[in-house]
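Chapter summary example: a protein plus coproporphyrinogen III.
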Amino acid sequence: MSPSARPKNDTFLRALLREPVDYTPVWLMRQAGRYLPEYNETRRRAGSFLNLCKNPQLACEVTLQPLARFELDAAILFSDILTVPDAMGLGLYFADGEGPKFERPLREEWVIRDLTAPDPNVHLRYVMDAVAEIRRALGGSVPLIGFAGSPWTLACYMVEGGSSSDYRTVKTMLYDRPDLLHHILTVTAKAVTDYLNAQIESGAQAVMIFDSWGGALSHAAYREFSLAYMQRIMAGLKRSHDGQRVPCIVFTKGGGQWLEAIADIGCDAVGLDWTTDLGEARRRVGARVALQGNLDPMALFASPDKVAAEARRVLDSFGADAGGENSGGHVFNLGHGISQFTPPENVKVLVDTVHSHSRRGFARG
Ligand code: CP3
């Protein structure tokens, strides 16, 4: 079914706001991507991943692809967190098989002191055009999620110049020249705030901050170098648009131990990876926030009956009233992005099981 032919479904937004829902909504991080043959076909037509991101029609096309296959409860803008540092002048490119890289990583003090936050409506116009285009194509069927990277996670890429296994360069800066790193984070937090607000104005109905590498920080450093800047973003975000509340999800991968602190920065929901038990997490945060997560993406490689069993286990761990009158606010997701090698049939099993098991009232049903 084309997305706009579906009846209006705002279950995802209601779960984020901890309002009653009929079942647990589900979407998947990286739901549009290389595990779908139709994505690879569109990407081939675009010529590269970055061309795909920079072409609003094609970005819209791939955003909708997983929704045509699976009964997902939300769409997520097709883009990348690294478009922001690209717009700051660092020169993003993807070397084949090596992941993202920057032509001009942040190394020299004078370059860092010169850094400024870009105007998203000028330098990231293509993202705003994609958001507007996707909203039109969705026709109110399911909500559209906008997103950005956390300042710390973006700084990792900006300073390292690409992916890193040990974050050696950025952590050397953290310990030796915290003033320089704080400057990068301050400018980046402003850039991310402006960027998310522009996405909200263009039609994003919820936003998510990906703090993918927050879990690499020490206990003390996490608050000072990651959480504090996400809190600053929360304080600057437009929280409603067109009379609707725009919920914000904060996801620190590896951040389970800091859950209470994350819940206190003013977000509506906290994303969790698979290392934290959802029921325990829920007891720790009480009614403060909704929770999103947290199936291990590798569980999708098991046989379909095991995939279904693991989906039920995650739902049951959150608790049976999640889909009932006293909604606890659970959005089902993976604990991190879906692998490019995932069999699409198993994604269908997952999505359908989340719906059927939560409608039946969980383990009692
Ligand atoms: O969830 C979605 O469907 C929306 C699209 C999305 C992408 N990247 C598309 C993408 C989102 C939300 C992201 C976020 C992102 N990008 C993060 C945070 C989330 C996370 O996974 O922790 C990070 C760290 C990045 C940076 C990035 N972009 C990396 C490290 C890579 C290479 C990864 C790989 O698997 O090769 C990318 C490229 C990328 N971003 C792809 C997609 C679909 C694959 C590009 C391709 O088609 O070759």
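Key point: The chain has one domain: 11-364.
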